[in-house]
């Protein structure tokens, strides 16, 4: 058995590391570890995840598992809303930290498995659905919340949902923002399995070892082919410009600014439809 000591992820001037990492038997584990912020996907946490994925690739990791600490009540609260612009600027541009980490997960040469305990909120849903496989406990829930904040989701984010969920399920998640149970998503084929919390770690790492023992080049090439095929639906230049124009109306609106401010002020938003 080949085991390495935990990787060292560099701390930033804003504080200590937000994740823990280790490699065992060509399986890399990233543990989200910022419970005081409910593992919100802040710029710092995202950069640490990206750094860990780069280190995993350099060290020949064949499978990556992303998880929260065992027994966590919240896997991740999604975007750190305090870092979102309050208006007049696209909150989910190509350079956005969430977009960046999702691309890194999709482009990582080996499968990435999400081990889910607790609630998955907002942008964290997209991060989870961008993973190659998702295993959750019965208590896990998934809530896509952009409509609650007045955030206009972008095309690539919507495609992430449509690549894993039937359209009516994706619409229910996105339009209502209400939590959806792991059991229901398993029945719809959105997640792979629901496993009791006392067995989920063993289940996920048994699966990871099975994958790691297979031919890594074949697995990696199949992953890349599937990624390309999943995004093969072309959008015309006119349609793309129209989508961007529609999104611009939203993030320049009163409702968008109200949603962000209400969240920060911990009060219900008052949307006016303008």
From TrEMBL:
GO biological process terms held by the UniProt record: fatty acid beta-oxidation
Any one Gene Ontology molecular-function term assigned to this protein's record: lyase activity
Keyword hit for Lyase: yes
Record key words, sorted: Lyase
Keyword Lyase: yes
Family: Belongs to the enoyl-CoA hydratase/isomerase family.
Protein name: Methylmalonyl-CoA decarboxylase
Species the sequence originates in: Simplicispira metamorpha
Lineage: Bacteria, Pseudomonadati, Pseudomonadota, Betaproteobacteria, Burkholderiales
């Amino acid at each position: 058995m080949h085991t390495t000591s935990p990787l060292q992820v560099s701390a930033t001037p804003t504080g200590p590391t937000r994740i823990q990492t280790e490699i065992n038997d060509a399986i890399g584990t990233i543990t989200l570890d910022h419970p005081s912020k409910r593992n919100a996907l802040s710029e710092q946490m995202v950069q640490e995840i990206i750094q860990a994925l780069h280190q995993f690739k350099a060290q020949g990791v064949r499978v990556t598992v992303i998880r929260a600490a065992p027994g966590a009540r919240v896997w991740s609260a999604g975007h750190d809303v305090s870092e979102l612009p309050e208006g007049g600027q696209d909150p989910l541009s190509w350079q956005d930290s969430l977009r960046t980490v999702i691309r890194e997960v999709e482009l990582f040469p080996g499968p990435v498995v999400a081990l889910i305990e607790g609630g998955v909120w907002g942008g964290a849903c997209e991060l989870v659905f961008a993973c190659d496989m998702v295993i959750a406990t019965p208590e896990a829930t998934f809530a896509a919340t952009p409509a609650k904040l007045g955030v206009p989701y972008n095309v690539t984010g919507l495609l992430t949902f449509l690549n894993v969920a039937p359209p009516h399920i994706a619409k229910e998640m996105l339009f209502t923002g209400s939590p959806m149970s792991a059991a229901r998503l398993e029945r719809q084929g959105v997640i792979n399995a629901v496993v009791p919390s006392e067995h989920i770690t063993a289940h996920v790492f048994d699966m990871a070892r099975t994958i790691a023992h297979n031919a890594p080049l074949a697995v990696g090439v199949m992953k890349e082919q599937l990624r390309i095929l999943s995004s093969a639906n072309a959008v015309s230049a006119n349609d793309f410009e129209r989508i961007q124009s529609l999104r611009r109306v939203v993030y320049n609106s009163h409702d968008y600014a109200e949603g962000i401010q209400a969240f920060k002020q911990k009060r219900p938003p008052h949307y006016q439809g303008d």
